[in-house]
Fold this sequence. Notes:
- This protein has 134 residues and is of the alpha/beta class.
- The protein has helices at 11-17, 30-33, 85-96, 107-115; strands at residues 23-29, 58-62, 70-71, 77-81, 100-105.
- The protein starts with 10 loop residues before the first helix and ends in a 19-residue tail after the last helix.
Amino acid sequence: MTGGEDGETGIDNDFFARREDGIGATVMGRNMYGPIRGPWGDSQCTGWWGSNPPFHHPVFVVSHYPHRPVEMEGGTTFHFVDDGIESALEQIRAAAEDKDALIGGGAATIGQCLEARLIDELHLVTVPVLLGEG
């Protein structure tokens, strides 16, 4: 990383700051959305991000359990898709209109997209990490 040690300057920060440029909709797995597991029940969970998530566009959460949409500040609405990854990708492509559709993760969701050959382009960021004594 260049710049400050806190990650607030340099190429990594610049890349992160532009992560949403040209994105019209996102799909993510349930674990990326929040900590609730199993049936939603009476959960009022609104995700990990607080009242104003960083997306500012429609987000489609792949889940095995139905859930009502959750509208947040800043233009983010979380929609819950319980009929498979193919359906989720159809919905984000329609919602994205003329912009890109982003597969935000996690690993299981990305794996499902790869297995079904639903990804046109994959941008993979790696970070070198030295573990132990190297």
